[in-house]
Write a structure and sequence with these properties.
This protein folds into three domains: 317 residues, Glycosidases (TIM Barrel), CATH 3.20.20; 211 residues, Class I glutamine amidotransferase (GATase) domain (Rossmann fold, 3-Layer(aba) Sandwich), CATH 3.40.50.880; 96 residues, Golgi alpha-mannosidase II (Immunoglobulin-like), CATH 2.60.40.1180. Helix 1 crosses helix 2. The chain has a nine-stranded mixed sheet, with helices on both faces. An eight-stranded parallel sheet has the order 10-9-5-2-1-13-12-11. The protein is built from 16 helices and 40 strands. The protein has 645 residues and is α/β, with parallel strands linked by helices.
């Protein structure tokens, strides 16, 4: 299978009424530009979400204004120029198939809407209809007739369907077709069977294919996906919290699989006239590289085949910024000694406020961490500390793995109701229920007060009640005078704190901390620095020295540590997304002056510390197993490499 260094993905969904498809397309020019940009992998549409094919199909519908085999010309040029080509087909959406065969569409609950219309103005297709065989036949047709390296199958969501075929299938399998959850689960299993059959069919023709099934949770068909492609357009609805959340977890699902980092040169899908600045794209790409993800920029293919020289120039510019670090990024593995826990990957993962907030807080604190799933196979032996945010479902498997971690004498930080209920014995507490209040405060003492002002602090989230059994009562909750509510006569809006209670806000049993308050949700709501500093103090209290300790790098700097044979590489990423009206953008790289940090590297002897790629010496000092490094002045991105033995 092809190993991607630099990718390019072209979006190409063209309405039937467009009169000029392929009119000005020059496959030689197009592929020459791709080579100029250093691209070795191309994803290109063979059949789009409109149901239009761009090749000479005998099965589907070639776009009526296309007069030749556009995909075929492109495939031939890619083959001659050593560009790996992956054919895109939309697996879950279509217009043409739904028009020609309305009986292939999903029948949505309660069974009244034949066509499940979704953005971008397509129809959802039933995976158990003859559409299934139709899609597989088109994939086979492409694999047999064109020199493609594999397939990208898109939009395989769990579209609920209660058509006659699906209802009969559900009855045979014991599902209740009148319950939405059962219908969705039936669809999920139907998607998996479709992926299995596509994979088997492709492998008959391409022995070692590139295969990726999009829009289902990473890992769902992880034995069929031969690579992962993380789609994130931060200005197009994903936001700037999505990539960090996914980057920290995808690398742990199947560590041997290559992961691509797809973002767009535009501001939104369907935006033909948008061209993001180089700094904006650099930020996305550098963040991905720092987590082992290879760049995969997306463009919009103008149906006419316009040359888009400005787009290729921007692509060449950005990839030239990245390429000089290839020797330090290719083959590098991320190091982490802290794990953020979640049961399993779901498409809603990035919508979890506690998770996205925890990722941001740990990134800001420069903690080297993985987001790991308890239901997946990855071992947890490397982690000194487990962090369990509030609201996370604690499965039996998660509980078992946490107990094994604790039995080894390692640390945990847990928050909220679910941890108190499921792990009370391990945490030395007994859960006593939720609190009927709207506003919570707390006070601190001892080690927890480091760099936090001495006062009553707001939580900005809910808290629960527990009593200590064999844990230390570290800090109390502070009640408010009254609820924030309308009492019938007066508005109780300004809610001052009253007195400390005998309800613990923090407890500690050995190196196990439990917090009754939802501090990650509180940070998500207000970004209050005292909550982030409190998390930092938790970590210092229970974990001992971690791999990387921040000394004075600013909060906006993201730091990741990677390892290669004989080298430890530290990626410093300095950009700051800025809210502008209805969207958030990156425009400028940030300058960092006199940034210091410490690495703890037991058993390693540091021979030199240099700035990549120049090899310029970097100021450092060694004290036992620790090396303190002063980063040179940089703007946007810097990579500091330690030669070790």
């Amino acid at each position: 299978m092809h190993t991607v260094k630099y990718g390019l993905f072209y979006d190409n969904h063209t309405h039937i009424n467009n009169p000029d498809v392929g009119k000005d397309f020059d496959a030689e020019y197009f592929t020459d530009q791709i080579k100029r940009c250093g691209v070795d992998y191309l994803g290109f549409h063979a059949r789009c979400n409109q149901g239009m094919a761009y090749y000479n199909t005998k099965i589907g519908t070639r776009h009526p204004s296309l007069t030749y085999d556009l995909f075929g010309k492109l495939a031939d040029a890619c083959k001659r120029k050593d560009i790996a080509l992956v054919a895109y087909l939309n697996g879950g959406l279509s217009v043409m198939e739904s028009v020609d065969h309305p009986e292939w569409c999903t029948l949505y609950m309660p069974g009244k809407e034949m066509h499940g219309k979704v953005t971008p103005y397509c129809y959802t297709m039933c995976y158990n209809s003859p559409y299934r065989d139709h899609l597989i036949a088109m994939i086979r047709e492409i694999a047999e007739n064109y020199p493609v390296n594999g397939f990208f199958i898109d939009c395989l969501q769990n579209f609920p369907c209660v058509c006659k075929r699906c209802v009969e299938s559900m009855k045979k399998q014991g599902f209740d077709w009148s319950k939405l959850d059962d219908v969705v689960e039936h669809t999920r299993l139907s998607v998996i069977r479709l992926c299995e059959d596509i994979s088997a069919e492709v492998r008959k023709i391409i022995p070692d294919p590139m295969l990726y099934f999009n829009s289902i949770p990473f890992g769902t068909v992880r034995d069929l996906d031969t690579f992962f492609d993380c789609e994130c357009l931060p200005t197009g609805g994903w936001g700037y919290e999505f990539l960090p959340t996914m980057a920290h977890c995808i690398r742990n699902i199947r560590p041997e699989k290559q992961v691509l980092n797809m973002t767009g040169r535009f501001y939104a899908w369907g935006d033909f006239g948008g061209l993001r600045g180089a700094n904006s794209l650099d930020y996305d790409m550098f963040y991905g590289l720092a987590h082992g993800m290879r760049p995969n920029l997306a463009g919009h293919f103008h149906p006419r085949g316009d040359k888009d020289e400005a787009v290729f120039d921007r692509l060449a510019e950005v990839y030239s910024h990245l390429r000089i670090y290839d020797d330090w990024h290719i083959g590098a593995k991320n190091l982490a000694d802290v794990a953020l826990l979640y049961p399993e990957h779901r498409l809603t993962l990035h919508q979890s406020k506690p998770i996205t907030s925890a990722v941001r807080m740990l990134d800001e604190l420069k903690v080297q961490f993985d987001l790991v799933f308890s239901e997946y196979e990855k071992e947890w032996d490397q982690y000194k500390l487990l962090i369990l945010p509030e609201e996370i479902t604690i499965t039996d498997r998660m509980k078992e793995r946490i107990r094994k971690h604790l039995a080894a004498g390692k640390a945990i930080i847990a928050c909220g109701k679910n941890a108190a209920e499921a792990l009370g014995d391990e945490l030395g507490i007994t859960y006593e229920g939720e609190l009927d209040e709207t506003t919570f405060y707390f006070t601190l003492s001892g080690a927890m007060t480091e760099n936090i002002e001495q006062m009553i602090h707001s939580l900005y989230a809910r808290a629960v009640k527990a009593k200590t059994t064999d844990a230390e009562f570290v800090a109390p909750l502070v009640r408010a005078y009254y609820k924030q509510e309308w009492n019938g006569i007066f508005a109780q809006y300004y809610i001052p704190p009253d007195k400390e209670t005998d309800i613990p806000f923090l407890t500690k049993k050995q190196n196990r901390i439990w917090c009754s308050g939802d501090i990650f949700s509180g940070y998500y709501q207000r970004g209050a620095l005292h909550l982030r500093t409190l998390l930092e103090n938790y970590i210092k209290t229970v974990s001992g020295p971690l791999l990387l300790e921040n000394i004075n790098l600013p909060g906006f700097v993201r730091v990741t540590v990677q390892e290669q044979p004989g080298r430890i590489n530290v990626n410093l990423i300095a950009y700051s997304p800025e809210r502008r009206g209805e969207t958030t953008v990156v425009e400028d790289a940030m300058a960092v002056i006199d940034g210091k940090f410490r690495l703890n590297l037991p058993g390693k002897n540091v021979k030199s510390v240099t700035l990549a790629p120049s090899g310029t010496s970097v100021e450092y000092s060694v004290n036992g197993d620790s090396v303190e490094i002063t980063a040179p002045v940089f703007k946007g991105f810097a990579l500091i490499s330690l030669e070790v033995e």
